Amino acid sequence: MKKDTAMRLSALAGQVAPEGIDPWVLHWQARHAHAAGEDVLVLSAGDPDLDTPTPVVEKAIERLRARDTHYTETAGRPLLRAAIARSHAARTGQAVTAENVIFLGGAQNGLFVASLLLAGPGDEIIAIDPMYVTYPATIQACGATLVRSPAPASGNFHPDFAALEAAITPRTRAIFLASPNNPTGVVLGDGEVEQLGEIARRRGLWIVSDEVYAGLAAGGRVPSLGARLPEQVLTVSSLSKTHAMTGWRAGWIVGPASFVSAANDVAACMLYGLPGFVQEAAITALEIAGEAERAMREYCQRRRDLMYAGLAGIAGLRPCLPDAGMFMLADIRDSGLSGGQFVRGLYDAERVSVLDGAVFGRTTEGFVRLCFAMEEREVNEACARIRRFCARG
Ligand SMILES: Cc1ncc(COP(=O)(O)O)c(C=O)c1O
After folding, report:
1. pTM of the predicted protein model
2. What is the C-alpha to C-alpha distance for residues 88 and 102, in angstroms, rounded to an integer?
3. At the topology level of CATH, where does 11-51+291-392 sit?
């Protein structure tokens, strides 16, 4: 038997390793094939096919030339934190100041910091299933156990509150959720947010409300948990989706000042500050947010409607109209294929990459997720190829 000479890693390595199939393998295969000039359509990731707004790029270049390339304040520059606070207050109605804000490396970094600070080994964190693919590892990174609470397909992917209450134990520390949700595009209504806030208040739980797609919801806003329960809610967001700025890694948490102070200590030993030119460009992005978000909303809504029409009437496939965001689920349970078979078969036959719904949770098994934030021509072409694939049976 071959001796394993690899040195031992900590428990964390196991806690963050992907469960089952790695959803990104086919995605990167498609991306590389596309980059090599192959006729591939990549619908597997949520990265808008638009450029970062020019004033934001110009600001970053200006600040780079001005040698804004040194260390910065760990929690983010005061002017940026104040700008995020103003933007959050205007969107949600929650009264916050710079003291309630920490700037981090994208919403993903915010989710990770939240996990580290809210729970630990022996604790449980509930997440609404389906959830963004990074959630299980992010939640388990702190040593806590992930407990899935369903938002079932039979209820149009809205949370089942009886199941949520039943999932809470004395070990539960927090509930993680996203509105608009990825992959379903569901926006929680006022009544649901009220109910969630009431449960969290009564049971003494944190809520981590991931609102990276809020700017893409109708009117650029969603009912706010933070405004209802400011002492127990962390709102996580970023510029990634609303401004086509996924590569800038510009995100934040808004929460109680005591939480922000602890997050600052984590950031000090993890990030030690983020680039000044990115922060200055982020201030510009927030200044033009109204216009940028409106443009992105219109861009997404138009393509959502195109895709929904383009996938209508395909035997074995039923598109689900999302409230907001840049993704559409399609129910493929009548196709006779599993999600994995559908995704692989579609790519091999038609060179269209999509994601198996199963990677988002138990509730989306038998569904696939398609991103529509791309040129209209590509949306139409993807729908035509999917139709052809399904027609083959
Ligand atoms: C629901 C959700 N949360 C967080 C993220 C990560 O966003 P960011 O680029 O700001 O880290 C994504 C990215 O797809 C997402 O869909």
Report:
1. 0.96
2. 12
3. Aspartate Aminotransferase, domain 1 (3.90.1150)
